Amino acid sequence: MKNKSFILFLLAAANFTHIMDIMIIMPLSDRLMKLFEIAPQEYTLLVSAYSSCAFVAGLLGAVYLDKFDRRIAFLFVYAFFGIATFACSFVPNFYFFLIFRGIAGFFGGVIGALVLAIASDLFEAEERGKAVGIIMMAFSIASVIGVPTGLYLAIQFDWHAPFQLLGALSFVIWIISFKYIPSLREHIDIQNKDDEGSGYKETRKEALLELLNSKNARLALLLTFTLILGQFMIIPFITPYMIRNIGFTEAQITLIYLTGGGFTIFTSPFFGRYVDRFGARKMFNIILPISFIAVGLLTHLDIILDTPIWLALCVTTFFFVFGSGRRVPAQTQLTMAISAKRRASFMSLNSSVQQLASAIASVVGGFIVIEADTPSKELIHYNWVGVIAVCIGAIALIIFPMIKSVRD
Length: 408
Hints:
This protein is an all-alpha fold. The chain has helices at residues 4-23, 29-35, 40-64, 70-87, 94-108, 111-122, 128-156, 161-180, 186-198, 204-212, 215-231, 238-246, 253-278, 280-299, 309-325, 327-335, 343-368, 382-399, and strands spanning 370-371, 379-380. The two termini are 18 Å apart.
């Protein structure tokens, strides 16, 4: 197929907007808590509302996505995601913001699933690690360009501005996607052929039940749940922790995303190439334990009195590189855990599990992390969250080798 590389980068761009929509809340967290006069527990509602609605959308997508042409499904979902995100910029208060974040989460919840499903249809298994690595660059680019830009706009104008920019960018990507993303119906043809061969047309409910009855699929979903649960107990509190406990200014927060994201732009494709060369399992067994060290260092930074900014940036960059890096072999293995005819449904279900895990993680983290009764309101017990996150993530080392690869 012509323009495969361009389409891959276009998918990465769409994934970028989705990731940025999730991430932009993080650097704005301290500002939003002060603006709306809310505690960390209430702030986590913003994160969990998006994730909870995305969870519901993922369940629905698991039933219906493989029924449609990948192109049509992607354009439909992405259009409403862009509209909902842009609408967030016009809300008058916290409660309306919470509602529209939920709507954006509902449509954004299946974008990642469709992006991975389309990429998996376009690229053979032997090339998939590299393709996943490029798509995972969306996180890096969102960190390097999107988050600092969004934070700068929020500082210069107000907190509505980043969502206006993101909505406009989504519109541009939709127009280009409409022109270049081809019709992808092979999964439908495979299903129709199977139905004709058996003389029985499978219902969507039966297709979902068969998917859930697959031990391989269940293990893959459990892998996703453990990885995301551990990681998202850490991420929502990085910004307030760095400001209140370490001494960063709001402007210096952008350095965290610039340096961390800047490195992962190069390391994500690097990990992807080595996944193709040495295998997903071997790379996962190397990257995941190193990410545990990064988590431990990050959540215990305030033990060092007067931590220098350069040291804190080294630790956060270490966390970004291996926190995102461990997902490259994991996502590559997940694309091979199910056959092509059920891939979008599985990826949507997997996305739903991601959102469920992140919602649970945010709420749990919000109850563990508390504000100190001091003028600077330092965060307490963030180190506890780090220990719990490592213990949860360690379960993935047991699950990963149990997942089998399914060849199309």
